[in-house]
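Open question from group meeting: does this chain pack into something compact, or does most of it stay loose? Before anyone orders reagents, we agreed to write out a predicted structure and look at it together. Recording both the input and the output here so the notebook holds the full record.
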Amino acid sequence: MLQLPGPLKFLKTFFQIFVIMIKMVSYSAKQLLVIDLFQIAWLLF
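Structure tokens returned:
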């Protein structure tokens, strides 16, 4: 797996947009909390 700064940054941005889309269609507070924690963990790596 190639660690290229450009593509990785693009993937992270795309992932953030994807997470926002999931939040918009999600109706469970517990799901939102899990998604938020997962997003924070993703941004730390």
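Observations to bring back to the group:
The chain has two helices and no strands.
The radius of gyration is 12 Å.
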